[in-house]
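1st attempt posting a full record on here, be nice pls
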Amino acid sequence: MSTKRTSITQALAAKFNTLDGTAPYTTNLSNNAHAKLKFWDEVQDFPAVFVTPGSEQRDYLPGDFTWGYLNVCVKAYVRGEEPQLELEQLLEDLELVVDANRVLEYSPGKTTTEILVTSITTDEGLLAPYGVGEINLQVRYAL
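the predicted structure (as tokens):
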């Protein structure tokens, strides 16, 4: 049995694996999105995306209701002749997937309430011919 945190990252990785290069997407991930962590120097197949849970906050409300706010890190890796362009296209595609799946079923009958992009950063071309980017998400769900 998976935890909520693990189930959410697995559901996000599954949605990212729908990136197949057909419109509106430009990147074909070839099912290379995973709910685990790898660093760019460990990756063999590009482009690649790795989704991991981070810190979590709780908001306790009256009536025994609690919101969970899970921070999720999405690491994106590319390799090519124009890594910054490829990386920017991949990050844009990932953001489109997030926007289309703000309410995401992560377990039978369990859904997130909201998924927001809180930050996007890149290596700014320093690792060429590799490109490394990171999208941080905040996932809100009922506990």
